[in-house]
Design brief:
169 residues, Heat Shock Protein 90, two-stranded antiparallel sheet, 4 helices, alpha+beta
Length: 169
Amino acid sequence: MSEPDLKLSVDWFMDLMIRGSLPSFAERQLAFSIVHEVLAAGNELCDIAAYLTDLSGELDAGYLRPWGVVFNVHADEAELPDRVCECLGLVVAEFAARAIMATDNSYKVASIQTVYLRRRGFSMFYLSSTAVPQDVTSKLGQQAAQTVSARLAHCSGSIGSGFSLVIPD
């Protein structure tokens, strides 16, 4: 094969690779824009179950799935002030970003677990990951607790790391 033929083959292959990656890139960009819309709740009250479910679905589709990060959500239905939903959503999104960074380093499979439970007089928000370092988790938990006027109830480190927030009514 002559040099011009080889260059043509390489150019054709690279063009094929670029065109093949455009649909997945476009899908990820669309998912990122939807994540941005979900994070900006915009109402005075926000349905936390729908919010976390929508956010996790969009993060999963556009951000986590390509890296092998599994996202699980369980949330009781409840209406919270939008500033609380946005804060919790930002913490979840930061956890997702940190989980992806960790999968690039040493973890083969990472998971994120989000639970919101509504009880009489208070709510509990739990967020954990098998990949996010404990120091990052602790800092995010403390910042979230301050922002939403909650009590940081638990930080763990046995299998990954996580925290619980107790949010009074």
